[in-house]
Amino acid sequence: MYSSAARPTAPLALPADIAALLQRFGLSLDSLLTDSNPKLAKGSTVARGAILHHLPARALAAAVTPGTVAPTAPRSYLAALAALADREGVAALARRHNGCPWATAGCAAGCLNWAGHGGLSPAVAAARGRRTLAMLADPHTYGRAVLWAIARQWARAQAEGLPLAVRLRGTDEGPAIGWHRLALTITPAEAQAAARRFGLPLSPGDGVTHTLAAALSVPISEGSLTLYDYSKAPLSGPLGLTAQRAAGWDVTASLAADRATAAADAMAALNGGFRLAVPVALAKGQALPRTLTLTLSAPDRPPLTVPCVDGDATDHRWRDPSGVAVTLRTKRSRGADSALAALFSLAPTGHPQALADGVVTLAW
Fold first, then answer.
1. Residue 175 and residue 132: Cα distance in Å, rounded?
2. What SS3 state is found at 292?
3. Which residue from 273, 280, 276, 289 is spatially nearest to 317, judged by alpha carbons?
C-alpha cells in the first residue's frame, strides 16, 4: 500500500554502486524502463505498464564489431557503443553475448526489436545496447538499478490510482542466470530509503540472496504490482517457464514455429497452464482466428484445440486466462531477411500448416 509518508518530490539519492554503474554507461533511472508506447497506451486505464528493452539475440555482438554491415543502420555497427564497450572492458563479453538463447532463425530475423522506432533509429539501438552492456558488466548492480526503477514507476502508478505491470524480457531473455534467479543485495537502510522516497514496501531479505520478486513480495501480494513476461524458454529446468512462474512471474510461452520441437513445446506449455503467444501474418482489418489446434506427428497423441484471444488489444497478458492462444498480428521487422522472417509467423489461413513435428491449424 502506498505510504502517505512518502516524499515523491524529495531529492533522489541512489545507492552509490547504482549511481556509478548508470553513469558509466550513460544511463539514468528514468531511462531504464520504457513506460510509453502505443501498446502500453492501449492498456493505460487498466495498469501502468513499464518494459525493459535490451538488444536481442546476437545484435549486441554485431553492434560492437567493426565492419558489421546490415540492411538498416540500427542493425549495423554502432561506433559509439563499441567505444563504450572497449572503455568499460566488456567488449569481449559483448561479442559473446546471446540475449535470446532459445531463439530460432525466424525469431531472430523477425524480432520485434526492429519494429517501430527500434527499427528506424540507431539512437534507440544504442540506448538498448548501453543497458545490455551495463547488465553484462555487473548483473547484480544492474538488477538493483532495475529494482529502483521499478520503485519509481510504482510510485507513479499509485499516484494515478493504478497497479503497475512490469515486463523485463521486453526484447531479450535477460541476464544469463535469469531475472527470476538473480540475487540482489538490499540493505535495511535501502529498503527504508525506498519507502521514504517512493512509498514502496521492499523486503530487505538476508542482505545477500534476495530475488527481485521476493524483494517486491508485498506489493505483488497486495495486487499493486505484477511481474509478467513472454519467454521462449523450455517448460522445465532452472531457466524454464515453470521455474519462472514459481518465482513470482506471470509467463506467456512464445511459439517457435520453426523449431524442431515446435508442436510438442507449444502443446506442453498449454497443457502446463501457460498461454501461448502466436504471431500470425494477418492483413490489416482481417479478423482474428477463433481457435488454434495442434496435432503432433506421434499418432498416439490426441490433438489439442484452444481458444484464441486478441493479444494486440493490450500488453497485459496477466489478465488473460491460461491455456489460450494469444494471437498477435505480425509487425514489420525492418531490415529482416524476408524468407527467414516469414518463419516467425503463421500464415493467415484456415488450412493446416506443417511444423517440424506436427501440424497447426487456425480456424475462423
1. 9
2. strand
3. 276
